[in-house]
Amino acid sequence: MVADLLLEAAGLMLIGMVTVFTFLFVLVLLLQLMSKVIQRYFPVKVVEKSHKIEDSNNGVSPAIIAAISAAVHQYRQKQ
């Protein structure tokens, strides 16, 4: 009785594991196929980098830097 139940449980476990493994294997294959199709029909366009050199302050205007510095200085004096 117990042996029969254990054999049936092992059989169900084996069927479940094979089903999950097969599903994951098919999923990986379909994702690879989809990736190849997308790369073939919709290639990634390469954009050339701009040769423009940015300022060392990353484009922040000196007026904004001065305003922030003044605000920090005023805040520290109030404490």
Shape: elongated
- The level of helicity is over 70%
DSSP strand content: under 5%
Largest sheet: none
Mean pLDDT: 89
The residue ranges in which pLDDT falls below 50 over 5 or more consecutive positions are: none
Structural category = mainly alpha
Distance between the termini: 82 Å
Q: Helix count?
A: 2
Query: Count the strands?
Result: 0
Rg to the nearest angstrom?
32 Å
Summarize the helix and strand pattern as letters: HH
Keywords: Cell membrane, Ion transport, Membrane, Sodium, Sodium transport, Translocase, Transmembrane, Transmembrane helix, Transport
Catalytic activity: oxaloacetate + 2 Na(+)(in) + H(+) = pyruvate + 2 Na(+)(out) + CO2
Function: Catalyzes the decarboxylation of oxaloacetate coupled to Na(+) translocation.
Cofactor: Na(+)
Commentary on this structure:
With 79 residues, the chain is mainly alpha-helical. It has a domain at 1-45. It is built from two helices and no strands. It has helices at residues 2-41, 62-78. The longest helix has 40 residues, at 2-41. The chain is elongated.
Give a topology summary:
Layout lengths: L1 H40 L20 H17 L1
Quick recap of the structure?
This protein has 79 residues and is mainly α. Helices cover 72% and strands 0% of the residues.
